[in-house]
Amino acid sequence: MGRRTSFAGLAMAGTLTVASVGASTAIEALRKPVRPGTDRTVSQTLPTRWINTWVSMPQLTETHNLPPAPFTGTNQVLVNSTLRQTVHTTVEGKQLRLRFSNAFGGANLPITKVAVALPLGGKAGVSAIRPGTSEPVTFQGKASTVVPVGAQVVSDPIAFAVAPDSDVTVTMYLAQGQASTNVTSHPGSRTTSYMLSGDNVTNNDLPGATSADHWYFLSGLEVWAPGTTGALAVLGDSLTDGRGSTTNLNNRWPDALFDRLVVRSDIPPTAILNQAAGGNRVLNDGLGPNALARLDRDILVQGGVDRMIVFEGVNDIGTAAATSAAQNQVAADLIDAYDQIVRRAHTLGIRVYGATLLPFGQNTGYDDPTGYRRAARSTVNEWIRTSGRFDAVLDFDRVVRDSNNPEQLKAAYDDGDRLHLNPAGYAALAESVPTQLFRNSALPEDFGFN
Q: Are 172 and 113 in contact, with CB atoms under 8 Å apart?
């Protein structure tokens, strides 16, 4: 690995590692120091551009997550229906665009009418909008559009100011609905949406509406942002999607990380894009396509992404057989997959930060009495920490594990299932990420060579 040097208390040549132990943060040296005089801000080379301020990972909707009755019928959903959803922004802009996905739809998605507005009281998950804020959305100047099977559609730019760390309401009307029960959505929204029969797009409230804690069809909200604005995308599973967080409070760990960044005047504006889904795996499809398959769609082609965090792999270990051979194989395959993710991201100039996998001791589904799965997690985490492959290491394992029993989560952070975190645990993860990772600096000359 080469000679170790000291940097902010703990250093390793080639990698920056972070772990919170009490109030302390251990930081390791950057992958390659930037030579004096080579630092530059992005604004010197990049123009104003479209950057997502919010995203959701598109996936095929499971039967139990389809729109509730009466909005799902035989081979059709949301016929003659209004759908109102709220999303939480990160970076600001004075113009926005919307993205609608039909990636997993079984039929074309005809959208009759769309509008954006500010939610009443500025809150997530409410059915009412602030009077006078609704603005129509168009597609090539028209009110309606059709999203083909497997495709997405981006709206025209809309003059609508978006503040950072705020909420925006998107209301859709589907006169024909979608002629399939194969529907694209993001079930783990942790945000309440509303459905009501008829065209109610411009109505200030939706009395009597049916609610569901899922997002449907909507996959991105973009803003026209200056070149100094960057974006960090997170490739993850339920621990990033926010299992155990509070519905409508936006307190997943990426949300808490943004809350830290937005108040820092020394950090350029940075969008935090949560591209995670509960049950997702790196190597094999599960809930949503595997991480290697969705890397291009969810990370690499997202406008403005210059950093990413890889925090995924526990579901691969937990669903592989609890045998020595199976767990040795899944650990080796995960390491190869991480290497591929880094290689593909580096080609596009994207820095990649690797996060260690959290303990799952005493979890009913994943922990095994033989200890083979624990050993696989240990192997993977050791590689993440010591390989030098990542541009920085976020040692989330050390942040939330029980110091007296490192194979288990700290009780104060455990959501109760010994696998997921509560809001305090997610806040601890966010607090452990060093803000210096978000300062603009030139990439090393050999960045992406390997």
A: yes
* pTM exceeds 0.85, yes or no: yes
Token pair recorded at residue 171: 């209301």
Averaged pLDDT in 10-residue chunks for the chain of 450 residues: 31 44 35 33 63 98 97 97 98 97 98 98 98 98 98 98 97 98 98 98 98 98 95 98 98 98 95 98 95 98 96 98 98 98 97 98 96 98 98 98 98 98 98 96 89
Task: Name the CATH code of domain 17-44+226-438 (choices 3.40.50.1110, 3.30.950.30, 1.20.5.420, 1.10.10.60).
Answer: 3.40.50.1110
Residue 447's nearest CA partner among 9, 31, 96 is 31
Residues 87/170, Cβ–Cβ less than 8 Å: yes
Nearest Cα to Cα of residue 84 among 203, 143, 169: 169
CA distance 307 to 335: 20
Residue ranges covered by each domain of the chain: 17-44+226-438, 54-221
Residue 333 neighbours by CB under 8 Å, 6+ apart: 283, 316
Residue type, position 75, single letter: N
Provide the b/e sequence for 107-144 (b: ≥16 CB within 10 Å): bbbebbbbbbbbbbeeebbbbbbeeebbeebebeeeee
**CA-CA distance, 375 to 143, in Å (whole number)?**
56
CA–CA separation, 146 vs 140, rounded Å?
A: 12
